[in-house]
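Figure S7 source data.
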Amino acid sequence: MFLTVEGIEGAGKSTFIGLLEEELGRRGIDFLRTREPGGCALGRQIRPLLLDASQNVSSRAELFLFLADRAQHVADTIRPALERGRWVLCDRYADSTIAYQGYGRGMDVEELQRLNDYATDSLWPDITFLLDLPAEVGLGRALARNGREGLTQSEGRFEAEALAFHQRIREGFLTRAARWPERFCVLDAEQLPEAVVAQAVKHLEPYFGEKH
Ligand code: T5A
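Tokens for the predicted T5A complex:
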């Protein structure tokens, strides 16, 4: 079972995944937690190039760095885990490229869909949890957290983008969720973290018996 978690900045993905891990552990599910960018050895070298605001990366170069990270991550980490019957729980995946580089940066969405098919050899998640909330709420949370953790502007290249950029990304995610309602589970991320996870667990209930 391949699960991904998506959303705008500060949607609460890390918090959500931490709580969901506990639930999967309680049910004896063998799972792998991973993330993009940076879920494999090559990706860990690519990640700082993508997130450091002091790097001058063009939109196309940025796109191919995300795709290179994903291609290697699928080959090295995700597919082998799925083939062993493990669940994979991934923080961001191809929908992020289409939302950020497509709806956010204005690149052609259908072209990005094809490029993601190519990079992943057409591996799409079984279920995608979309943590949905207004962009200003998510950005507010992300900036407050960065402040608490002493992160500088250069460690948050995407957080530094204008509010309208993040609003387009939110709409992009929602457009994708409407296009693939059988894959997407949209969750109201303004609720308490425990309530958000409870909804996800309810959605997963039919799959717990299968364990793969
Ligand atoms: N990107 C990524 C692309 O452009 N294209 C791509 O193809 C891919 C894969 C990755 C960046 O790269 C971009 C998207 C991103 O900008 P990242 O460092 O991995 O960057 O960060 P993000 O994935 O954006 O995740 P964030 O770290 O911003 O936030 P999270 O994980 O969504 O949120 P989290 O859990 O850290 O929570 C943020 C704050 O809110 C609080 C938490 O305590 C924390 O302080 N919080 C809540 N508060 C109230 N209610 C709740 N329900 C809460 N849940 C969490």
